[in-house]
């Protein structure tokens, strides 16, 4: 975070100093990630720039850049803050004064998925969601065992179908409305959470066993010694708030990920990333040049003229003084090569980027192409997978579907999801990523010699492996079938394939446990830590048809 700033309102001086000192304590204790530092910087800057006296925690919550996670840092700062905390849902401890138990949907039910998806979709930018948008987002989330779409056609009762045929998971919305968690208004209908609905959604998130990003959870855990958040439930709440603020944010620090790469945020992965071959005493910059390779099918504009693409490539070269080439890549939209200066050999560095503008992502989510594309990226052999989303999701008619896809891609599947505002921003991102990757290998090239045995593949080896992935095998078909099952992500599908490469082999394993349904349902979960209870049960139902 930058040096201390002048405070516009003198009465806020102590508040700004309090946050500054908190940040210093965290940095001095265990260090602080760039992502967390950026969050604190935004809050600190806006507190300093506020011209109004911030008297209560409620006033603070209305300051731009201050979310629920940041509010927890100020616990104990404001006098008589308990009422304000409860009103904002920060304390969340002393509920139920009337003695009645709040209705909570059963985990992995359609009601559960609808409630959480609606909460995520309305946490920051928009106060409501429309029906189709909510259905698409809930379907993409994988939170429910069942689909929220009509199971046997879309006709209304009496139109050549019985009420039983017409029934679908969407009917659960009536229960949420009746229980006072959701309100419906306008025509066409808008769906909004009540205050009680928001509290119920947060409680569902706390109680859920959803997989979380190790990187983000570590970021939250760094603050536990300062904020006093000790319980796993509180960590889940803080994590959910941090992720929601980040995904829904309409403005992004263009180069935060690039800077974190340079500063060693992937330090824990340094023995995981592959390195090009090296000799004794060699420095990376003396042996290799880093080359950005862009796919020749990459469309930098809606125009099909190649001259525009050439201008973009030339722009990257001139702005960032880096080498850029265009080739026909077997997978992804961009990779980075380390080219040996003397031996004329090329090695693929451990980074790959897939670029999607919001319209492309919306279409691929609806026809499930994005699952197939991500599966191929996960199997290409490169470690650092970057998913670059270009444009503002809030401008799309399927905004929540796009944000949910980004959420699951990063949190559940381990991709590094980055956002750019448009073409010019994407050009800059490619340039800064190239510089950062170059700096990373300069820094870690010598460090890796003691413990890293992974060697970058040659370009020809990389192409051959990706071409082999194009050949559709029985296992590939099985993987695509698995990914249509609720709660089965690409990572889960690959974990199943490691155990049982074909549908037949999995069915045989189930047959050995015939008669013990519970053992069959939990078989995959017990064999792999990557497979959740819900996914294990749903896969069993797919294969065994029970």
Describe this structure in words.
- By secondary structure, this protein is of the alpha/beta class.
- Helices cover 50% and strands 10% of the residues.
- The chain has 26 helices and 9 strands.
- The protein has a 6-stranded mixed beta sheet, with helices on both faces.
- β2 (182-185) and β3 (190-193) form a beta hairpin.
- α11 crosses α13 (232-248) and α22 (474-482) packs across α23.
- The longest helix is centred in the last third of the chain and has 22 residues, at 423-444.
- The chain is globular and about 70 Å long.
- Its EC number is 3.1.22.-.
- Pfam families: ERCC4 (PF02732), WHD_MUS81 (PF21136).
Kindly list the characteristics that best describe this protein:
alpha/beta; 3-stranded antiparallel sheet; 26 helices; 10% strand
How do the strands and helices of this protein lay out in sequence?
Elements: H1 13-30, H2 34-49, H3 57-61, H4 68-73, H5 82-88, H6 110-121, E1 129-130, H7 131-141, H8 163-166, H9 172-178, E2 182-185, E3 190-193, H10 195-207, H11 214-221, H12 224-227, H13 232-248, H14 256-262, H15 284-287, E4 288-295, H16 306-320, E5 323-327, E6 334-340, E7 346-357, H17 358-366, H18 369-378, E8 384-390, H19 399-411, E9 416-420, H20 423-444, H21 459-470, H22 474-482, H23 490-499, H24 503-511, H25 517-527, H26 533-544
Parallel strand pairs: 4-5, 7-8, 8-9
Antiparallel strand pairs: 1-3, 2-3, 4-6, 6-7
